[in-house]
Request: fold
Amino acid sequence: MSPGRLITIEGIEGAGKSSAARWVLEWLQRRAVSAHRTREPGGTELAEQVRRIVLERGSESISATAETLLMFAARAIHLDNLIRPALARGDWVVCDRFTDATRAYQGAGRGVDGAWIEQLAARVHGELVPACTLLLDLPVAMGLARAKSRRAGASDRFEAETSAFFERVRTGYLELARREPHRIRLIDAAASLEDVQRQIGAVLSQLIAAGGAA
Ligand SMILES: Nc1ncnc2c1ncn2[C@@H]1O[C@H](COP(=O)(O)OP(=O)(O)O)[C@@H](O)[C@H]1O
Ligand SMILES: [Mg+2]
Reply:
């Protein structure tokens, strides 16, 4: 049995991550790859409770440090209860956000020390690095407009952030992609849904051809 692979999907609000995650799952299942779709923060019952804490706009403040620790706490729970067992069974895992989101949001966005984030990443998931990360990139205004049109209720703690914050997050993501071009594949998410899917399909085909499946 070949080990499962972790595929992560990243980008700012409204980039199309959740749509892409659903499409990637179907793409894999059509090729008889056993796969799960999940998300961060959250993904398991307990980790989803941490998600609510970190996203809800309550009366108490959550510092960037607390936010970073909560993200990694949720991630540790998610890894133990869902991601690692699935990969060990040989299943693939398609995850809507992972540690690159902490690097971009808490690191580039909020100014949390990058070296500390890497220490936490090493402690929480050690050698486990996504086989492939799809970075859905688009102008901030376009992403925020899409997120707004999709949203049903009130905005969460991140959605309520300024454009300047999301510009830093976007720049942070692009910097990560420059540093790790082999793992992090840039997708032009300003394109039509069909074109985004074509770009993602091309990356996935390469991944499978490189020995990922079956
Ligand atoms: N390529 C695209 N072109 C136009 N609209 C899109 C595209 N991708 C996603 N959308 C729409 O934009 C909104 C946000 O997409 P979503 O997948 O929820 O983004 P995210 O999970 O990154 O916040 C949804 O209404 C979705 O249908
Ligand atoms: Mg989403």
In short: The longest strand covers residues 132-137. The beta strands are 6-10, 35-39, 92-96, 132-137, 184-188. Residues 142 and 190 are 8 Å apart (CA to CA).
